[in-house]
Amino acid sequence: MPPSPLQHELSARILDFISKEKLEPGTRLGEVALAERLHVSRTPVRAALRLLGHRGLIRPGERRGYFVANGAPAEHKVARRPTVTDVDRLFLAIARDRRAGKLPLDVSERDLMQRYAATRPIVQRVLTRLSEVAAVQRKPGHGWRFLPTISDPQARAESYRYRLLIEPAALLEPGFHCDPAWIAEMRRQHEEMMAMPWSDTASIALYEMNATFHEGLAAASGNRYLLVAVQQQNRLRRFGNYDWTFGHERVVTNCREHLEILKQIEAKNQATAARLMRRHLESAAKLKRPAANVAAGQQGHRSGRRTSR
User: Fold this and answer.
1) From CA 301, how far away is CA 295, in angstroms rounded?
2) How far apart are CA 289 and CA 297, in angstroms?
3) What CATH number should be reported for the domain holding residue 62?
4) Are residues 275 and 170 in the same domain?
5) What percent of the residues of the chain are helix, what percent strand, and what percent coil, each to the nearest 5?
6) C-alpha dihedral sign at 254, 257, 262, 263
7) Which among 7, 9, 130, 139 is placed 20 to 30 Å from 77, CA to CA?
8) Residue 223 belongs to some domain of the structure
9) Do both 157 and 284 map to the same domain?
10) What is the distance between the alpha carbons of residues 280 and 258, in angstroms, rounded to a whole number?
11) Strand partners, 66
């Protein structure tokens, strides 16, 4: 099966890390350390390392693990977002239909092929991507099951109240330290997001960028419990938030608010950054999806509960 977009992106970021850190040939590339630095789980990092190994850009160890190869690329830029593909379109269609309650808790490849008139390879690639972001898991024996998400209005409100408790506090932790290289990368991604033409499938990249931003700040707090809490919230929110319904103007507002928080962090104004984070979350919590989508989400939530009993 061809590598997923996430694997391609992580591969590029790993090469970028090797270049920026000037790692010597033979340096071990630890999965745990890379997963923490890239703010993802070990599974996609392992897949990205395997992909780089197959391409000869890093070398596998004699027993296990991967190492910086001789003659590793001296410079590598993070790959640009891929163009819209059939995989992207199907991925977004499934996210929308699941949130609207149009898809059951359990599905099979054949179900999805018939519903969306898609080929098996396309469906398999989408399911692989969904599993990488913890949206589905393979059932023992046959089929796939959607994992819990934050979708209905009440759960969404509770999620934001919880985030208001922990995310501003993370910026005030005594051990807070934000890597300047990470801040620069976040600034680049946000500026690029504001400048790029908006399309439905860009909503996936938008959410992943937002998740990376919030998890990165939680990681910078130095408090592992705050990081785990934010990661869990992002996992639960991910699939239900891939379908952005608030328009491009709100995308720009969201990015500018993030950039102002980063500006205050660079200036060591942690208290101001925490206040801006609180204001940012309060503003996001007030956003409401179109009425039809909210009603559909409530129906899907009730349907999901009946199915899981």
Assistant:
1) 10
2) 10
3) 1.10.10.10
4) yes
5) 65, 5, 30
6) positive
7) 130
8) yes
9) yes
10) 8
11) 60
* Per-residue pLDDT tens digits for 194-230: 888 777 767 878 888 999 999 999 999 999 999 999 9
* Alpha carbon distance 107, 226 (integer Å): 34
User: Residue 144: what are its φ and ψ, rounded to 5°?
Assistant: -130, 155
Cβ neighbour number for residue 255 with a 10 Å cutoff = 22
Tell me which of 27-31, 101-105, 134-138 is least confident.
134-138
List, in sequence order, every residue forming a beta bridge with 106; answer none if it has no partner.
145
Q: Are residues 162 and 278 in the same domain?
A: yes
Domain-terminating residue out of 35, 68, 101: 68
Q: Is residue 167 part of a domain?
A: yes
Please provide residue 84's backbone torsions phi and psi, each rounded to the nearest 5 degrees: -65, 130
Question: What is the domain range of residue 46?
Answer: 5-68
Together in a domain, 165 and 59: no
For the chain, the residue count is: 309
Q: Report the CATH number that the domain containing residue 215 is assigned in CATH.
A: 1.20.120.530
> What confidence tier does 121 reach under pLDDT thresholds 50, 70, 90?
confident
How many domains, the chain?
Answer: 2
DSSP code at position 77: P
Contact 204, 88 (CB under 8 A): yes
Model pTM score: 0.60
As a whole number of angstroms, the distance between CA 163 and CA 233 comes to 8
Residue 190's nearest CA partner among 178, 168, 205 is 205
Q: Is residue 91 part of a domain?
A: no
In angstroms, the CA 243 to CA 91 distance is 10
Q: Which of 68, 101, 123 is the last residue of a domain?
A: 68
Beta strands in 24-143 (DSSP E): 58-60, 66-68, 106-107, 136-138
What distance lies between CA 223 and its chain's CA centroid? 20
Q: Is residue 158 part of a domain?
A: yes
Contact criterion met (CB below 8 Å) for 53 and 66: yes
Tell me the two tokens of residue 47. Answer: 């897949």
